[in-house]
Design a protein that fits this description.
Blueprint: E1 2-8, E2 12-33, E3 36-61, E4 64-79, E5 82-83, E6 92-94, E7 97-112, E8 117-128, E9 135-140, E10 143-148, E11 155-165, E12 172-182, E13 192-199
Antiparallel strand pairs: 1-2, 2-3, 3-4, 4-7, 5-6, 6-9, 7-8, 8-11, 9-10, 11-12, 12-13
Length: 201
């Protein structure tokens, strides 16, 4: 869930955004020692809250618009501690995991005005300034130890293409977009789709 408020001047805009995400996680692993086979499962949940500011400045050329973009987002969250369900010697349990992130983005955008429609494309360079904790406390067979966690990429390029609709006589507007991260090695670089509904006052 996310919400944003934005102020538009003649050639520039600024805004603030707030996002809350709630996630469920499941683990499932198989262990084989000689002829013995064991399976373990686990479930937990997590939540992340993000707050950010954004802005831009645009130049208009007939029906075309070119803009510079900038944003800054701070995120804080956690994954709740949990243990695997089967009570045997292969059982693992994990302490609470903290999530920290401070990201900035700068980029450019092109839009074309066609009656009530505005197709657009933009590209942003995203920089991660803060790491989440690099280790996680784990318990195995009544022994505690720390395991290293994979760290997120430090920078990548985000590209987005979409379509905005807004009638001049209506305060409502609608957006449909697709985006993808380029040059990112972790598991969050897939293509994603999103929609947005806004009200202008």
């Amino acid at each position: 869930m996310n919400t944003a408020v934005r102020y538009d001047a003649d050639k520039w805009w600024v805004g603030a955004a707030l996002q809350l995400s709630d996630n469920d996680y499941k683990t499932n692993r198989q262990i084989q020692l000689d002829s013995a086979k064991r399976s373990q499962k686990g479930e937990t949940s997590g939540a992340v809250i993000s707050a950010g500011v954004f802005g831009g400045y645009e130049w208009k050329f007939d029906q075309s618009q070119v803009a510079l973009l900038a944003d800054l987002t701070n995120s804080h969250g956690k994954v709740t501690d949990f243990g695997e369900t089967e009570a045997n010697a292969m059982r693992l349990s994990f302490a609470e995991q903290q999530i920290r992130s401070v990201r900035s983005g700068v980029g450019t955008e092109y839009r074309y005005q066609f009656t009530d429609w505005q197709p657009y494309v933009n590209a942003r360079w995203v920089k991660e300034w803060r790491d989440s904790p690099a280790e996680l406390v784990t318990t195995f067979n009544n022994s505690k130890f720390k395991v290293g966690l994979a760290q997120a990429d430090k920078s990548w390029v985000n590209v987005q293409a979409g379509l905005d609709w807004k009638a001049k006589s209506s305060p409502w507007h609608f957006q449909l977009a697709v985006q993808r991260d380029l040059g990112r090695r972790d598991n969050f670089s897939g293509t994603s789709f999103h929609t947005h509904v806004g009200y202008q006052f």
